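User: structure tokens for this one?
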Amino acid sequence: MAVKLYAQVLEICLENGSSDWDWVDNFKVKFFEPPLRMFIPPKDTPDLVSKALETSFSIFFISPSASLSTLRIALETLLEEIKVASVTKNGDFISLDKRINSLSGNNAKILEHAKAIKWLGNDGAHHGSKVSRIDVLNGYRIFKHILVELYPEKKASITPLVARINDAKGVDKKA
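Assistant:
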């Protein structure tokens, strides 16, 4: 793993009560290679969506704005994967907003979440928006929720165990 650090030397006032000044190193992470995964998508997440997310993760430390913009691209990729049309029958472009609002059936449960990603991505794409890393992390939380809703991971059921304990009214006395 490669880590690039941005180093800066600062002169600071020492906090030992002496009012002396000293030079200190100030380090700031720029990127990790391979990128840190800010969350692990469910295993059934389409590859193209996972790749778009990895791109967003890779620029998180360098540019929160670009990271949010790329998260919006991941949303557009996800909509393609779940067969939400991006063009009309005449070949005209369908806006992301209209695509999101067309979500129906089981996919309708992510409509509001997808809108939030769209808004965050818009802020990331437009100059002048003050985007912080916290904004990106919030976007990741929302996107992870979308993926968990669409691609829930099957967990082992404890229902048979609960039934067996309740039927025996505790520990199995026959064993």
